[in-house]
Specification:
Elements (H helix, E strand, L loop, with lengths): L1 H4 L4 E3 L12 E2 L2 H4 L10 H18 L4 E3 L10 E4 L2 E7 L4 E4 L8
Parallel strand pairs: 1-3
Antiparallel strand pairs: 1-2, 4-5, 5-6
Length: about 110
Amino acid sequence: MVFEDNKGKSVSICQHPAVGGMYLMKYRREVLKQMPIPEVKTKSMAVFWEVVFNTFYAGLDEGNVVVLFPEMAHSDVFIEKYGRMNMVMGNEYIEKWKGDWGQRPL
């Protein structure tokens, strides 16, 4: 329903740390064809490109990006699972568990 309501638009779940944060986004092929797609091989590269790639993408699709939950950001809820601490963020529609957050050394 969300994609049908926003047909022809890019749809980002949140904008933290940038539009398309955590790569939670519906990208439009016609925009992706206008830009290079990085070959990401490490977690630190994924963290870097999360902001750079999505900011560049949003600039190419300016005025055509819908952000569903602009208030969704890091939280102070942490739960130990899978042998590590995980930040749990979200709202009544989506829950995102993060094992890495911020720019701490990986």
